């Protein structure tokens, strides 16, 4: 376990000292090696304070798999920048990966809290330093205010549990240490931080801003990994705090189901491509929240499957949006149309990714959403109305996004660069693992 952590740590000085000519080739090779090594950790193992189990190992591997893809995706945008800024971006991405890896492998609550909060700093640097517009500072402020304000109750909960158990709390049930009235307060303290990170509808306003202003690497890691930290945190807290009746979480389940529907409706009126994908992440994460709150084995398996599938799908959508942006210099849907005539190969990737986004079988997204739908229906049959409505609107905006970007006559008269093999490799690395996981879903469920 420590081998891969130290290798990730050594990536930071490596990127700062490599010769400019081999900077991207060497960094990409190094990160690919890390991604391949991380595949060994799909089979859980432990090493004292750093431990992986069946909940954390798929997310741990997903985060490492996305690291080389972030380097590949950033390459075209960063080559115009001074060498020092290119090195700094790669070092910041490595530092972010290190904090994410330590979050997923933390064996006690204190380390989980510290690393959970440490992920904010590299993310904020990426958004504010390499964002494309002046609004990036506002986005950074939103991001910090929402996440830091809601993380204060989690800190108090962590300190309380540490004082009760007289040790940095391990993920073991501490029922005998906690009074009945305190349980709900502790749960609310933990949920506030993790739900804002996912984010639940109502605490979601930082997410579209952060996505729109972030560079491509920032958008990829935000959508694919950082949103999953919230879901992972809630699942972990279930192993520590006393289990509550599902009815206690009824307001949160209702809010997340309505939030999914409202976020989907918001997608229908978006004109900005990145903003549309960001709001679709809010709706998918709302389903994950509802599934985790039901607290059955079936619903938790569905939540894990959807988190992994959404990680690949949303990251792929942001990569496709970036390829369109690099050629048209705009993200407005009506101005990026007609790509089917110019780049027909990319249209295939657009179609495949959109079909995965609307959970067409046999994709992993379908497995996750089917398990969540059956769990919700088993818990309360009325939820199928909201779930069905949400799925209908998801299909509508996904097809709208596909048709808007690919069909009709191109508005731009400027010559468009053909697609690079680098971009096709990037899409293949997103789509292929997702298809392979759907053949052997027990790796992540």
TrEMBL record:
<comment type="similarity">
    <text>Belongs to the complex I subunit 4 family.</text>
</comment>
<dbReference type="GO" id="GO:0048039">
    <property type="term" value="F:ubiquinone binding"/>
</dbReference>
<protein>
    <recommendedName>
        <fullName>NADH-ubiquinone oxidoreductase chain 4</fullName>
        <ecNumber>7.1.1.2</ecNumber>
    </recommendedName>
</protein>
<keyword id="KW-0830">Ubiquinone</keyword>
<dbReference type="InterPro" id="IPR003918">
    <property type="entry name" value="NADH_UbQ_OxRdtase"/>
</dbReference>
<feature type="transmembrane region" description="Helical">
    <location>
        <begin position="342"/>
        <end position="364"/>
    </location>
</feature>
<feature type="signal peptide">
    <location>
        <begin position="1"/>
        <end position="17"/>
    </location>
</feature>
<keyword id="KW-1278">Translocase</keyword>
<feature type="transmembrane region" description="Helical">
    <location>
        <begin position="300"/>
        <end position="321"/>
    </location>
</feature>
<dbReference type="GO" id="GO:0015990">
    <property type="term" value="P:electron transport coupled proton transport"/>
</dbReference>
<keyword id="KW-0472">Membrane</keyword>
<keyword id="KW-0813">Transport</keyword>
<feature type="domain" description="NADH:quinone oxidoreductase/Mrp antiporter transmembrane">
    <location>
        <begin position="106"/>
        <end position="393"/>
    </location>
</feature>
<feature type="transmembrane region" description="Helical">
    <location>
        <begin position="143"/>
        <end position="161"/>
    </location>
</feature>
<feature type="transmembrane region" description="Helical">
    <location>
        <begin position="184"/>
        <end position="207"/>
    </location>
</feature>
<dbReference type="GO" id="GO:0031966">
    <property type="term" value="C:mitochondrial membrane"/>
</dbReference>
<comment type="function">
    <text>Core subunit of the mitochondrial membrane respiratory chain NADH dehydrogenase (Complex I) that is believed to belong to the minimal assembly required for catalysis. Complex I functions in the transfer of electrons from NADH to the respiratory chain. The immediate electron acceptor for the enzyme is believed to be ubiquinone.</text>
</comment>
<keyword id="KW-1133">Transmembrane helix</keyword>
<feature type="transmembrane region" description="Helical">
    <location>
        <begin position="21"/>
        <end position="39"/>
    </location>
</feature>
<keyword id="KW-0732">Signal</keyword>
<feature type="transmembrane region" description="Helical">
    <location>
        <begin position="113"/>
        <end position="131"/>
    </location>
</feature>
<comment type="function">
    <text>Core subunit of the mitochondrial membrane respiratory chain NADH dehydrogenase (Complex I) which catalyzes electron transfer from NADH through the respiratory chain, using ubiquinone as an electron acceptor. Essential for the catalytic activity and assembly of complex I.</text>
</comment>
<feature type="domain" description="NADH:ubiquinone oxidoreductase chain 4 N-terminal">
    <location>
        <begin position="1"/>
        <end position="103"/>
    </location>
</feature>
<keyword id="KW-0249">Electron transport</keyword>
<dbReference type="GO" id="GO:0042773">
    <property type="term" value="P:ATP synthesis coupled electron transport"/>
</dbReference>
<keyword id="KW-0679">Respiratory chain</keyword>
<dbReference type="Pfam" id="PF01059">
    <property type="entry name" value="Oxidored_q5_N"/>
</dbReference>
<dbReference type="Pfam" id="PF00361">
    <property type="entry name" value="Proton_antipo_M"/>
</dbReference>
<feature type="transmembrane region" description="Helical">
    <location>
        <begin position="59"/>
        <end position="77"/>
    </location>
</feature>
<feature type="transmembrane region" description="Helical">
    <location>
        <begin position="384"/>
        <end position="403"/>
    </location>
</feature>
<dbReference type="InterPro" id="IPR000260">
    <property type="entry name" value="NADH4_N"/>
</dbReference>
<keyword id="KW-0496">Mitochondrion</keyword>
<dbReference type="InterPro" id="IPR001750">
    <property type="entry name" value="ND/Mrp_TM"/>
</dbReference>
<dbReference type="GO" id="GO:0008137">
    <property type="term" value="F:NADH dehydrogenase (ubiquinone) activity"/>
</dbReference>
<keyword id="KW-0812">Transmembrane</keyword>
<feature type="transmembrane region" description="Helical">
    <location>
        <begin position="214"/>
        <end position="237"/>
    </location>
</feature>
<feature type="transmembrane region" description="Helical">
    <location>
        <begin position="249"/>
        <end position="268"/>
    </location>
</feature>
<keyword id="KW-0520">NAD</keyword>
<dbReference type="GO" id="GO:0003954">
    <property type="term" value="F:NADH dehydrogenase activity"/>
</dbReference>
